[in-house]
Amino acid sequence: MRVVAAALLALAVSGCAGAPQRPPGAPERLELAAVPFFAQDRYQCGPAALATLLGASGASVEPAALVAEVYLPARRGSLQLELLAAARRHDRLAYPLPPDPLALDAELAAGRPVLVLQNFGSTGSPAWHYAVVVGYGPGYRLLRSGLTERLRLNESRFEGSWSRAGRWAFVALRPGELPASGAAQPYAEAASAFEAVATAESAAAAYAAATGRWPSEPAGWLGLGNARERGGDLAGAEAAYRAALGAAPGYAAARNNLAELLSRRGCLAAARREIRRADGDAAGTPLATAVAATRAAIEAREAVAEPSGCPEP
Amino acid sequence: MNFPFTRTVLGLTLGTFLLAGMPPIAYAGMIGTATAIAAAAPAARDADLARVQAGLARADVRAQLERLGVEPAAAAQRAAALSDAELARLADRLDALPAGGDAGILEFIGLVFIVLLILDYTGVIHVFNTHHH
Description:
The complex is a heterodimer. Helix content of chain A is 50%, strand content 14%. By secondary structure, chain A is of the alpha+beta class. Chain A has 2 domains: 19-173, Alpha-Beta Complex (Cathepsin B, Chain A); 184-299, Serine Threonine Protein Phosphatase 5, Tetratricopeptide repeat (Alpha Horseshoe). In chain A, the strands form 2 sheets. In chain A, strands 1, 4, 5, 6, 7, 8 and 9 form a 7-stranded antiparallel β-sheet that branches. The N and C termini of chain A lie far apart (76 Å). The termini of chain B are far apart. The longest helix of chain B has 21 residues, at 47-67. Helix content of chain B is 60%, strand content 2%. Chain B is mainly alpha-helical. Chain B contains 6 helices and 1 strand; from the N terminus they run αααααβα. Chain B folds into 2 domains: 3-90, no CATH class; 99-133. The chains are: A alpha+beta, B mainly alpha. At the A-B interface, helix 2, helix 3, strand 2, strand 3 and helix 4 of A face helix 2, helix 3, helix 4, helix 5 and strand 1 of B. Strand 3 of chain A pairs antiparallel with strand 1 (99-100) of chain B.
């Protein structure tokens, strides 16, 4: 009996090793054949891989045009963070994936290729390389890599090269598109980095998607409010700040910005109510100085005849 | 421009303000999303101070990009596209972080060649016939 149990266990273990787990609902084989291919120039797998990723998401750009954005001549390569930044400059939200093959497969199953960093050397003497994963099957993965349009890489070889590079991977999301798997906090961080270079419209779309999936997370609402304010939609911005405060009443950043907008449209009594409360909520936090400065500015404003439509206490 | 010197001067100025117990700069008005997210992190420092530090990190990264061969105008744009958190991770480390580009293998071959050359020159091995002991 024990022998049978041991044999079953051995079989189960070897079964796990032979066939990697796929996310629920993902097909057994998958290939995103429509993903474009750009053969890389020497050392320039960064621009080539990025052009592949951007092209697949509908942002058509040649690798040569990306060289000035990501290539570091003295390093003869491209930095990971600069690839993220360059994707954002082409109106795509760069979302770094958790270091997990399941997250990678989930993106592929959602139709999105994934840019990965690989290390074909050793930890001590690395040989870094960027490639784009476009599919998988039993025991293998398909990549756009270097000069090879359809590289079929043994699963264990891919896994080895990827894990020696910290399993780093990212996807390029259109504004408003959400990652297949993902969490509110990393998405908000990625969206705020995107917001800094994106148009107000694109930034608003990215945050609106976040508030749709994670409505109880206030950072997405704050971002939506800030993007709308930048785009001139002040009523929409106010509504977003109020939604943030509905989710988290002590969120001083949203109350600070709400007070600032109320003050700008002449609703000074309401603005003072909000900024005083925000000042109390921010006390002892990293936002204390910033909120106190807003409060000082609002308190110093001369009261004028209030317009209609100001919020009542 | 000698950036480390500039940074030292800026750091000292900033430090003097802090020692005097004054907030360095007070930004009244809207609080940005990135600022609010950074302020919510466990080990966050004063948001205004963090903005000044991010400004320093951006100038540092820009100078490093130029030193590594990027045109000044492009370096400014590239530094501008990085988030404050990314700048903090890059500052002072551009030489050490992975740069994907297949350069590793060639550098490894170069390193092996140099080691062989030294060993040959010092008489440990004989692979090159350019000199004789």
